[in-house]
Amino acid sequence: MIAVAAMAEMMSVEDYREFLLNQVAPTETINLPIAQAHGLVSAELVEASCPLPPFDSSAMDGFAVTAQDTAFANATMPVRLTVIDDIPAGGYGRERVTPGTCARIMTGAPIPQGADAVVRVEDTDVPAGATPLRKEISVYAPVSSGKNIRAMGEAANIGEPVIAPGSFFDARAVAAAASVNTSHVRVYRKPKVTVVATGSELVDPGTSLVDGQIPDSNSLLLAGLLREWGADVECVRRIRDSVEDLRAVLEEASLSCDLIVTSGGVSAGAFDIVKDYGETRGFSFPKVAMQPGKPQACGKVGNALVIGLPGNPVSVWVSALLFVRPALQSMAGMRPEAPRIFDGVAGTGWKSPTGRRQYVPSTLKVERSGNRPVVMPVHRLGSGSHVINAVQLADSLCVVPAEVECVERGDRVQFLQV
Ligand SMILES: Nc1nc2c(c(=O)[nH]1)N[C@H]1C(S)=C(S)[C@@H](COP(=O)(O)OP(=O)(O)OC[C@H]3O[C@@H](n4cnc5c(N)ncnc54)[C@H](O)[C@@H]3O)O[C@H]1N2
Ligand code: MOO
C-alpha cells in the first residue's frame, strides 16, 4: 500500500496506479443468460456442460460408410453402395450402416450406427448440392476409419474448464460458453460511471466562440473511452467553475455510480474547483512524475470513487489510459494488466522534461521485418498537453524515462501500444 503521506513529492506512475487500485472494489455479481454476458467479466469458472461436439458428427457433406468398403475404391473401379438413410444436421440415423450400404449425411449431423467414416460428396458420382436421394452411389476414393468424423468431446470434454474467472466476455468468449451449452453465467455488474468536465470556458462544439470560450472535448473523450472500455456511462455533465455546482453533481452521481471521472480544476489555479472541493473531503492530490498528466486527484464521495484528471486534453487521454482504465477493469472484476513495453527506434529527435517520464503520442513504422519499429511523434509539438487534434493519429505512446532530457534520432526508445 502506498501511503498518502508519500504524495508530497512526485509519485511514480506505478505507485499512483497501485494507490488507485487499492481503493477499488469489484462490483457485485449477477447471474445472467449467456446472451447478455457480452461486455461483462466472468465471476466464475465456466465448465463445459456438454461435450464439444456433443456427439460424433460429420465434418463433410457426403456419405457415412464403413471404411473397409472403400479400401479399393478409385476413379476407374468405383465401389457401389446402397443408400439406406438420409441424415440432415438436426436429424439422426434411423438405420444401421452395414457393409455394402451407406447413409447420405450432412456436415454436423450425427454419425449413424455402424459407420466409421464419411466419404465427401465430391468423391462420389453424386453432384454436390440439393439433389434427390439416390438408391445407389459410386465411391471414387478410399477413406480410412475415422475420416471426416469429429469425435464427441474432441474439442472439449464435459466438465472441462472453458472460461476462467475474471475473463472478459468478448464475442469469442460468449460463443465459447454457448458452445458447451452454458445457459447462465455469473458476471460482475458493469461499473456505472459519471463524467464531469469542469471549466467555465467550456461550450458545446460548434458554438461561436466568444470571450475565451473553448469547445469541450474532454467530456466526449472520456465518455467515449469509458464506453470503449466497457463502462456503463450513466451521465455526462459539464459544469462551470463553481464548487457548489461540483458538490451537487458529485453528490448526485455518487448515489448511483461506482466511479466519477472529472477533468480540469486540479492544479494551482484560483478556480481549481476539484482541488477546492476535494480538500474539504480528504481527497489526495498527487503530483505524478509524468508529462503530460502531472496533477491528479482521487477520493471518495459516498461509495463512489472519484478520479480527477487534469484539464489539458492530452493529459486526460494519457492519464485515462494509465489510471482510469485499470481502475475500471478492476471494478469490472478483471485483473488489470500493466501496459506492455516494447523497444523501438526514434524516427526524429525531441526534448523531454527532466524529472518526469514523458509519454509522446506516436505512430510506429516497421521498415524491415526483424528491425525495431521506428517511433515517430504524431505532431511536431510532441507531448504538448493541448495537442488533442493529433492524438487520434497515434497508435502508441513513446515512453521516455524521467532522467532523459533529449531524444536523438536513431536512439533506442520504448513504447506502449494504445
Ligand atoms: N502554476 C501552475 N500551473 C499549472 C501547473 C502547475 O503545476 N503550476 N500544472 C500545469 C499542468 S501540468 C496541467 S496538466 C494543468 C492542469 O490544470 P487543471 O487540471 O487545473 O486544468 P484546467 O486549468 O481546468 O485546464 C487546463 C487546460 O485544459 C483546458 N480544458 C479543460 N477542460 C477542458 C475540456 N473539457 N475540453 C477541452 N479543454 C479543456 C483548459 O481550457 C485549459 O487550457 O495545469 C497547468 N498549470
Ligand atoms: O502535466 Mo500537464 O499534464 O503538462 O500538461
From TrEMBL:
Reaction it catalyzes: adenylyl-molybdopterin + molybdate = Mo-molybdopterin + AMP + H(+)
GO cellular component: cytosol
InterPro entries: MoaB/Mog-like_dom_sf, MoaB/Mog_dom, MoeA-like, MoeA_C_domain_IV, MoeA_C_domain_IV_sf, MoeA_linker/N, MoeA_linker/N_sf
Pathway(s) this gene product operates in, as recorded in its UniProt entry: Cofactor biosynthesis; molybdopterin biosynthesis
SUPFAM superfamilies hit by this protein: MoeA C-terminal domain-like (SSF63867), MoeA N-terminal region -like (SSF63882), Molybdenum cofactor biosynthesis proteins (SSF53218)
Keyword Metal-binding: yes
Cofactor(s) needed for function: Mg(2+)
Record-stated family: Belongs to the MoeA family.
Role: Catalyzes the insertion of molybdate into adenylated molybdopterin with the concomitant release of AMP.
Protein name: Molybdopterin molybdenumtransferase
Species assigned in the record: Scrofimicrobium canadense
